[in-house]
Write a structure and sequence with these properties.
mainly alpha, 15 helices, single chain, 371 residues
């Protein structure tokens, strides 16, 4: 294995960091809108499909050669022409996703801390941080995730403890759980599955860079279980405090809930502190998406079929960053349009491309005898 080499801990630390940014935008707001007071069950509905997807993805990576991620396997399975076309499509997908990540990060600051502000200062700030990450070594992103993740997990645990200790908890807001709510719970599970599966797929581009030691599949299973437990706790506490109706109406219910939370009466704007820290997942997510887009474009436009073998070209990084920044500023005119695209359009694109990139690619590769 040449070039990028990762530990399994670094790999799943980055996956978790990448997940945190879109997770708290769609969960529990969208899941509660779909399932009502039963929205806290969304992760339980998503667990089995997510485990099956992780198992399938690990099976594909297991068939790869040493050092191959999902990008190299795609080129080998589909052939040089179709494989490069699909990598080009992936690059556009990553740029679109990064554009929405930038805009959502900006809207989060505007709605919760700086009302009536314009989005471009926040978009430019997050994008500048992400460009610095993408211009550096790819492994630095994984190391940064390994450092940042314990801090964010500690903050989340502290938030849950403070919310649990706050007056106003009402378990009745989580009930009743009836048979009539099951279709809504299934739809909310699809939302969580789409986020988790997309993150696993993003990470799979570097999946061949982790050591092929025993227990790799078990590590993927435990990651899925931990994420579903985290989603359940965050959803249950938010719905419990705000109620299902208000949770479904707010754009960022988790961060809105933190407005009235103080830390031992010493830090009154504890919510603003947490929101400020959430720029770290935005930074890691956008940096990783830019890195993936650059490597997919380079592999699609050249004869070099190995991703992450060299440092990202600065000109291509800046070009991709400019495209993502322009998309963040011009794809939607306001928060309502951003929310509509993020909740209705992006999940559909995710599911389609995930199906093509895993099931479709695997079947074609097996039929051609390449994997």
């Amino acid at each position: 294995m040449t070039g990028l080499q990762l530990t399994r801990r670094q790999y799943y630390a980055l996956c978790t960091m990448v997940l945190l940014s879109p997770l708290l935008h769609l969960v529990p707001r969208k899941t509660t809108a779909e399932a009502g007071c039963c929205g806290w069950l969304c992760a339980l509905a998503a667990l089995m499909p997510l485990l099956l997807f992780a198992w399938m993805l690990e099976g594909i990576l297991h068939r790869g050669r040493p050092g191959e991620g999902i990008g190299e396997i795609t080129l080998r399975a589909l052939g040089p022409v179709a494989g490069r076309v699909l990598l080009g499509v992936y690059a556009l997908w990553f740029l679109l996703y990064s554009a929405f990540a930038l805009r959502i990060g900006a809207e989060r600051f505007i709605e919760t801390v700086f009302p009536l502000s314009r989005p471009w200062p926040f978009v430019v700030t997050i994008l500048a941080m992400a460009v610095c990450g993408a211009l550096g070594r790819t492994k630095a992103l994984f190391r940064a995730s390994e450092i940042f993740l314990p801090l964010l997990m500690l903050v989340l645990v502290l938030v849950l403890v403070l919310v649990f200790a706050a007056p106003g908890l009402n378990v009745k807001n989580l009930l009743p759980v009836t048979v009539q709510e099951l279709p809504g719970v299934a739809r909310s599970g699809l939302t969580v599955f789409g986020i988790g599966a997309a993150v696993l797929f993003f990470g799979a581009f570097t999946g061949g860079r982790t050591p092929p030691a025993p227990g790799r599949g078990r590590a993927a299973v435990w990651w899925c279980v931990r994420i579903c437990v985290l989603v359940t706790l965050l959803s249950a506490f938010t719905i419990d405090i705000l109620g299902a109706e208000l949770t479904a109406k707010l754009n960022h219910p988790f961060f809105t809930m933190l407005r009235n939370v103080s830390l031992l009466h010493a830090v009154e704007r504890f919510g603003a502190l947490v929101i400020g820290l959430w720029v770290l997942p935005d930074f890691v997510l956008v940096s990783m998406l830019l890195t993936l887009a650059v490597n997919c474009l380079r592999a699609a436009c050249t004869r070099n079929a190995q991703l992450f073998a060299r440092k990202n070209p600065p000109a291509l990084v800046l070009l991709c960053a400019a495209a993502a920044g322009a998309g963040a500023l011009f794809l939607a005119q306001n928060a309502f349009e951003t929310d509509a695209l993020q909740t209705d359009v992006v999940p559909v694109i995710n599911i389609v491309l995930l199906g093509v990139g895993t099931v479709g690619m695997y079947l074609v590769g097996r039929a051609r005898g390449k994997i």
